[in-house]
Write a structure and sequence with these properties.
Main location: membrane
CATH architecture: Orthogonal Bundle
Helix content: over 70%
Order of helices and strands: HHHHHHHHHH
Distance between the termini: 56 Å
Family: Belongs to the binding-protein-dependent transport system permease family. HisMQ subfamily.
Strand content: under 5%
Protein name: Polar amino acid transport system permease protein/putative glutamine transport system permease protein
CATH topology: MetI-like fold
Number of helices: 10
CATH class: Mainly Alpha
CATH superfamily: MetI-like
Transmembrane segments: 20-43, 55-75, 81-103, 149-168, 188-210
Structural class: mainly alpha
Number of strands: 0
Radius of gyration: 21 Å
Largest sheet: none
Function: Part of the binding-protein-dependent transport system for glutamine; probably responsible for the translocation of the substrate across the membrane.
Length: 223
């Protein structure tokens, strides 16, 4: 069979719409996962054993259940008890909760890496624990956690392809439609492979540049 990518030209607009929806879902899910990750990371460093235990249960639970099972629970399971959520919102919620477990590891590592002198200086200055965590600890932890959080984002974009199973026409969902309409699945999925590979490579490069920019002072000190 001869590959003919020209058959996809009339459908590039549809694929672009899918890519845009993938970007929107990923951006919203990134915000949600960082918020969830920050809350869980703080809980995992809490002085309360009950809070720490609850946070560990959350992380273990969502890291050890396949994402598609979590997604089906939210989309197909919740309506049984009267909770109806549209596909895109379900995808954002599921991705945020699932990725939040991984983001919490990255943020927690950033918190534990902070010099104890920072905490001591904040304690001497009389700042409340809430102010110390929101104004000092979390900004530093997020800055040092850019690379692992970037990996969470890349994985989130790849995982978002599963949303096509709940009728969300993101990039993979639109590709399936184009493949069925054109009867040219080979060309469609070749383009899909290239798009995902290029997108994730560019994101990884951007995260690396951002990490260097935000941590330039630390790199200079080490040098």
């Amino acid at each position: 069979m001869k590959m003919d990518l020209t058959v996809l030209i009339p459908h590039m607009g549809v694929l672009a719409d899918g890519a845009l929806l993938t970007a929107q879902i990923s951006a919203l899910s990134l915000i949600g996962s960082i918020l969830m990750g920050a809350i869980i990371a703080v809980a995992r460093t809490s002085s309360s054993s009950a809070v720490r235990r609850a946070a560990y249960i959350y992380v273990d639970l969502f890291r050890n259940i396949p994402f598609i099972v979590q997604l089906f629970f939210f989309y197909y399971g919740l309506p049984v008890i009267g909770i109806y959520i549209d596909g895109v919102t379900t995808g954002v919620i599921a991705l945020s909760i699932s990725a939040g477990a991984y983001a919490s590891d990255a943020i927690r590592s950033g918190i534990l890496a902070i010099d104890t002198g920072v905490f001591e200086a904040a304690e001497v200055s009389g700042l409340s624990k809430r102010v110390v965590f929101t104004r000092i600890v979390l900004p530093i932890a997020l800055r040092t956690s850019i690379k692992p959080l970037g990996a969470v984002l890349v994985n989130m974009i790849l995982t978002s392809s599963v949303l096509s199973t709940i009728t969300v026409n993101e990039l993979t969902g639109q590709a399936k439609i184009v493949a069925s309409n054109t009867f040219r699945p080979f060309e469609v999925y070749v383009v899909l492979l290239v798009v995902y590979a290029t997108l994730t490579w560019l994101l990884s490069l951007g995260v690396d540049l951002l990490h260097r920019a935000l941590n330039r002072d630390l790199q200079q000190q080490e040098a």
